[in-house]
Amino acid sequence: MDLQKCGGKSMLRRSLRLQLNGYYNSDGVPTVSYRETKVRRHRYRRPVYTKESKVPAEDTFDSSSNENQPRNTFTRFGWIIIVLSLIYGCAYLYSDLPSQSLETFVSLTTTDMVLTPECKNQEKLIVNQLAELLRIKKELEYLLPPADLLTNYALESLGAMILHHMTSKTYQKREGCSLFGLGIQRPTVGPKIVIQGKSHFVPGQCWAFAGSQGRLAIAISYKVSISHVTLGHISKMSSPTGTISSAPKEFSVYGRTHLEDEESLLGTFLYDEDGDRLQTFKLPDHKVGSFSFITLQVNSNWGHPDYTCLYGFRVHGKLAH
């Protein structure tokens, strides 16, 4: 309290308002004492580093008391915990979505799936693209069949020959007209056409033998360890009638090392009438051997009652040492 000197004595300066409100007792001593405390707002400043040390200066924080520091520290840690919780939650959701979607997709059947118009358009587009790729693949195989990439040892230009005495007779067909009372016979195509190695077949340019069963014996100029054989015929697309009933169906391949040896069955195969014109067949591993004579035995055809046609036959493998 302020003191007022009067005649060498100190006297208390009393406030009339305080006297009226009873802040003094009968002796004139104040009964209520209080002290005002200034409260300053805490403001954060960037740390100021000195040249001598990287420790921030003391006046970095403007705070009149340390009462607000625990609250601010709690606020910072609280925000960090909240942010980490959100990140963890999002990561968990995104990591769980693929497995749930895959399980849902696998568990759905065609009857359960409801395709939207966009999905139906995409499905139709994919089907069309697959059909286009299949068409391109067939065209490429037509231009360059896989059999053309394999060495053909049953090739006339490499010295292969037809053993006529062990081969079926050529089918003879008479025309319906005559000249001077004599029937006209079309020139026949011999079995040599089968070993000429042609890839593109012309309808009618084939060797035909009577019936559905026949043999073609070939002597190759090398002793070969046989791994594959290829049988050729025109496709239904190339046929004028749209059918290939004269094509061989089931056939067998035999091998001999010497002409006087007994034949060894190398395998029995089925020619697909709806397949490619050149179809390659792999011999069973236990039938692989080295042979100099090959016999093609046709056991049946695809329904033609009069004859069976052969357009090409190939032998693949490696030279025997």
Gyration radius (Cα, Å) is 52 Å
Strand content: 25-35%
- First and last CA, distance: 128 Å
* CATH class membership of the largest domain: Mainly Beta
- What is the helix tally? 3
Any idea how many domains? 3
Q: Note the quaternary state here.
A: single chain
The percent of residues in helical segments reads 10-25%
Structural category: alpha+beta
CATH topology of the largest domain: Jelly Rolls
Within CATH, the superfamily of the largest domain carries the name: Galactose-binding domain-like
Q: Detail the poorly predicted runs.
A: 1-11, 58-71, 94-112
Number of strands: 15
What form results from the Cα inertia axes? rod-shaped
Largest sheet, strands/sense/barrel: 7 strands, antiparallel
Mean pLDDT: 77
Order of helices and strands: EEHEEHHEEEEEEEEEEE
Folded structure, characterized:
- The structure is a single chain.
- The chain is α+β, with helices and mostly antiparallel strands and 321 residues long.
- The protein has 3 domains: 3-46 and 58-62, no CATH class; 116-149; 151-319, Jelly Rolls (Sandwich), CATH 2.60.120.260.
- Helices cover 22% and strands 27% of the residues.
- The chain has 3 helices and 15 strands.
- Strands 5, 9, 10, 11, 12, 13 and 15 form a 7-stranded antiparallel sheet that branches. A two-stranded antiparallel ribbon has the order 1-2.
- Strand 1 (3-6) and strand 2 (9-12) form a beta hairpin.
- The longest helix is centred in the first third of the chain and has 39 residues, at 69-107.
- The radius of gyration is 52 Å and the shape is rod-shaped.
- The N and C termini lie far apart (128 Å).
- The model is unreliable at 1-11, 58-71 and 94-112 (pLDDT under 50).
